[in-house]
Design brief:
Structural class: alpha/beta
Strand order of the largest sheet: 7-6-15-16-17-14-18-21
Helix content: 25-40%
CATH architecture of the largest domain: 3-Layer(bba) Sandwich
Number of domains: 2
Largest sheet: 8 strands, mixed
Strand content: 25-35%
Bound molecules: 8-demethyl-8-dimethylamino-flavin-adenine-dinucleotide, P-hydroxybenzoic acid
Radius of gyration: 21 Å
Number of helices: 12
Length: about 400
């Protein structure tokens, strides 16, 4: 048996991109259905990003899904970059005219958005399998999928591919239309959540000859930490004691103490930069990680996903309500300007802060020169601050 459903926008993926899009469309009076392959509890507990740019937190607040973020998130007015044990604070307040970041876990953003969509009567179907976009090059696209033991066809006018880097939607763009740009880094991040009060009020990004380390936070009782490791490293080689030993060495700074506690979650992620162009084909529009990946050193992935769907929601509102299609036609071009700006920043931060395993002596000398420049130049600190808090949506 096949069940038929209809909506205006069929959205694949209930990550930040898909959920923010569905929420913004609802605000515009546009109907959507979100299809997610994982369970609700899986997406609500997946530990990932933690930094919201000023523009992202403003958007969540202004569209009515920011209450818990405002109550539980932490507003930060700076970050620390550490070289040779010496900390250099990048002061957002003075360098960006008062723009700030909010530290609030991605899974909390996802929880808030799911409950807002369901409370508003929206449809988010979890554990939808075999999700496949069809006919996106014509005027009547659809998405087929299986849910609760039944095959479904979701008829829609537009398909939004918000299904992350390993999703199915990008594959619906013919290979002769698509150009891919990619860089893999020869290192990964071992990320962990530790049940201990953060030892810092603001993030610390540390370069150390043994590798990069990052101290971030989640709550007064929970710290989020990362260390640079080989991307093929087996997590079994990293018992908790070894992780703390390494963090103690890499984050060490005179007069400062790193407090240890039980590690409650740990995982290794490889790092890559990736962009596909264009981000649209016919009635299919890609957003977020489905179209691009950045290494996490700039804290940009979730923010870029939110920026894409903000542009897409506006363009869809113009098209559905006013028959004005120029925003949709230029969607990819519009997004890619920000995507490449963010690629540059994320790549710069990554190459500034990690030990480059090739041990290319020239590259290492240039890296040290750049680190000294960051430590001493107001112009360079201004550049980092402006990009870190996020450029306004064009
Ligand atoms: P997501 O979050 O991957 O969501 C995609 C959703 O699509 C579902 N899906 C499918 N559903 C149906 N059918 C299919 N065939 C499907 N295939 C996939 C998936 O289950 C999933 O629910 O992508 P989205 O929405 O584009 O959001 C992107 C962000 O998740 C990502 O960019 C960030 O997490 C990256 N990132 C960070 N971004 C920041 O802005 N600030 C940070 O501080 C930050 N830190 C990080 C990060 C990512 C990390 N990892 C683990 C990659 C730190 C880390 C360690
Ligand atoms: C995090 O808190 O998870 C986090 C913070 C900054 C980054 C990446 C991740 O650059």
């Amino acid at each position: 048996m096949t069940a038929n459903m209809e909506t205006q926008v069929g959205i694949v993926g209930a990550g930040p991109a898909g959920l923010v899009l569905s929420h913004l469309l609802h605000k515009e009076g546009i109907d959507s259905v979100v299809l997610e392959q994982r369970s609700r509890s899986y997406v609500e507990t997946r530990v990932r990003a933690g930094v919201l740019e000023q523009g992202s937190s403003d958007l969540l607040r202004e569209t009515g899904v920011g209450a818990r973020m405002l109550a539980e998130g932490a507003v930060h007015e700076g970050v620390n970059l550490q070289f040779d044990g010496e900390r250099h604070r990048i002061d957002f307040a003075t360098l960006t005219g008062g723009r700030r970041i909010t530290v609030y876990g991605q899974q909390e953003v996802v929880k808030d958005l799911i409950s807002a969509r369901l409370d508003a009567g929206g449809t988010v179907l979890f554990e939808a399998t075999d999700v496949t976009p069809n006919g996106v090059d014509g005027e009547n696209p659809s998405i087929t999928f299986r849910h609760d033991g039944t095959d479904h066809v979701l008829g829609c006018q537009v398909v939004a591919g918000c299904d992350g880097f390993h999703g199915v939607c990008r594959g619906a763009i013919p290979t002769d239309v698509l150009t891919e740009f990619e860089r893999e880094y020869p290192f990964g991040w071992l990320g962990m959540l530790a049940s201990v009060a953060p030892s810092t009020d603001e993030l610390i990004y540390a370069f150390h000859p043994r590798g990069f380390a990052l101290h971030s936070l989640r709550s007064p009782e929970l710290s989020r930490l990362y260390i640079q490791v080989d991307p093929h490293e087996d997590i079994a080689n990293w018992p908790d004691e070894r992780i703390w030993e390494e963090l103690q060495i890499r984050l060490a700074s005179p007069g400062w103490t790193l407090h240890e506690g039980p590690i409650v979650e740990k995982a290794i992620t490889a790092m890559r930069s990736y962009v596909c162009e264009p981000m649209q084909f016919g009635r299919l529009y890609l957003a977020g990680d489905a179209a691009h990946i950045v290494p996490p050193t700039g804290a940009k992935g979730m923010n870029l996903a939110i920026a894409d769907v903000t542009i897409l929601a506006r363009a869809l509102a113009d098209w559905f309500h006013r028959g004005e299609g120029s925003g949709l036609d230029r969607y990819s071009e519009h997004c890619l300007k920000r995507v490449w700006r963010v690629q540059d920043f994320s790549n710069t931060m990554t190459e500034l802060m990690h030990v480059l395993p090739e041990r290319d002596p020239f590259a290492s000398r240039v890296q040290r020169a750049r680190q000294r420049y960051v430590a001493t130049s107001a112009a360079m600190q201004h550049t980092i601050a402006e990009n870190y808090v996020g450029l306004p949506l064009a």
